[in-house]
């Protein structure tokens, strides 16, 4: 099919470019932008290859530093020492900040980082700034991410000797649609077109599917279905997936995820070692930043050592009068972070439950991500899955990016003579999508873990007699009340024929295609005729671009419950 | 297999569709005669009019035709098929019809087929839903069956409450319909259907 001469992208900044799954001339690269580290991989014609930067690194630190007014990221920049990254001039952990508002607890947890994260707690994006020439210079997570992506792109172009435009990115399971639009925005700023955003454990699942298919080929086996549980814990997020694999098809059965990770372990330990850390570092003075950096490096180092040793001495002079001299034991580390580990266990159990899979039926348990080296993490997954051995065929740090590269090749329409790319991922929705109805309730139309593509429809009716207009307010999340969920957008349908409440039939249909684009259709169903009197509405979501809570509050102020909807109980 | 001599429109997601070729007369499902909407304009819902002859299994069928097949026919397995066969057939059809592997320009068509295959798999791989589906199929109602719409929110529903809610929802539906009927000038269901036929 000839490519169109030009296309007009959607007007909305959020939606970015149209994602298409049509054949493309070039192989999309896979990028894993981690909270702490990132990597790039590509299908080289026979296998997946990780790209290296000029310093021969496959794993690059995810940060951008604003030294000498010129931003440079962890791909090209060489830190003279770890403290340079903690001087306030470098911005990192962007993945924990992107697409979040300043009332989000995850954003608040970022306030103890050396660069400036200022919150006003009113539901807008936080103020983020780097220390440049003794002044806080503001930036945004998208911008920082874009600078970083430009460096990655340049690195890949240099090595592959061709322009790079299409990418497959891995994302945390817990990311909402609004956050995905921010990632797409960052990519667009870097001149990259997102072919697919892939939840991290589903990328690992695809790699597993490929490995299983190769094993089956080698053994001439029956190719029966294999079930794997994938646990991926990085610096910023923990994700779990259950996948059922056969013949190169990875059917994602359930996903669970949360914004907890190594960063939480680190901050908990910092608070444990220095209980008044928050008050000591609250004003971000130069000396405070320095002390904070010292503590961070020492704690990080100690946690790393506790993966192989049972105890580690800490001798630290923070320079402001406080000194820390103690021996830290592994049990202490595990006790201080008990809640984080408990949450991890909950995610595993929840995912198994949602997948409707018995623990005995799981063939392989795969633990990946930076935190997979922590003994407690391995222990909790093995005990939650009631087994002795973990799957060994994967590099824990490279699995996700390799899966993304495979998806990039498959989605680019590349085929492999040996069948190594005869792969398919059947994805599922990570969060429920629904509308506000029955008072302030969230009524899911596409439930969580629904296979994509999906199209679901539900009928609603009016809440008042002779109500002629109704608001369709679309949310995403798991809470029963709309306030607990993320607003995606809203629109009004008009022309409802005057009738007693409960009589009109208002149909709301949601359509998610294979590349996760959401469209919402709504309109009044006219009885006994084909042509609706009023045209239906079709809205591509999300449409809100900031201040999630504000729009809903404003709608509530302006209309109260006058344009409400009630769900029609129809089970048959 | 047919009901009242009319083809019943496909299951769960069928209210948003286009008229295909005129040989198919769409009525709403027998249980809910008022609910069919046809509206033009969206490529997502567009369906190519194909001259594909009806085949016995989904292997040669895409687009709307799949709505006429039973879930067993769609997956190409016997009605006695085991769970293993269902899973295998599902994965094979997914490889064939998932929009990711569709030829360019036929994505919508493949998407529709895949959604239907997915529905068949979800129904037949759940012993309880499969039992209900088999029961309905024996009565010739399977084409109107929708696993998801029935059990939208209550997975662990027990048999007893299931019956109760069936009755309740039927009652409330009847009540609502009678209100609607009034608003349509007391036109009977038959009259509406006749008009519909004329309009075609």
From TrEMBL, chain A:
GO terms for molecular function: ATP binding; ATP-dependent protein folding chaperone. Residues 1-21 are annotated as: Disordered. It comes from the Eukaryota. Belongs to the heat shock protein 70 family. Keywords: ATP-binding, Nucleotide-binding, Stress response. Signal peptide: none annotated. Gene3D superfamilies: 3.30.30.30, 3.30.420.40, Actin, Chain A, domain 4, Substrate Binding Domain Of DNAk, Chain A, domain 1. This is Heat shock 70 kDa protein 8. InterPro entries: ATPase_NBD, Heat_shock_70_CS, HSP70_peptide-bd_sf, Hsp_70_fam.
TrEMBL record, chain B:
InterPro entries: DnaJ_C/III_chloroplastic, DnaJ_domain, DnaJ_domain_CS, J_dom_sf. CDD domains: DnaJ. Residues 177-200 are annotated as: Disordered. It holds the Pfam family DnaJ. It comes from the Eukaryota. Gene3D superfamilies: DnaJ domain. SUPFAM superfamilies: Chaperone J-domain. Residues 70-137 form the J domain. GO terms for cellular component: chloroplast. This is Chaperone protein dnaJ 20.
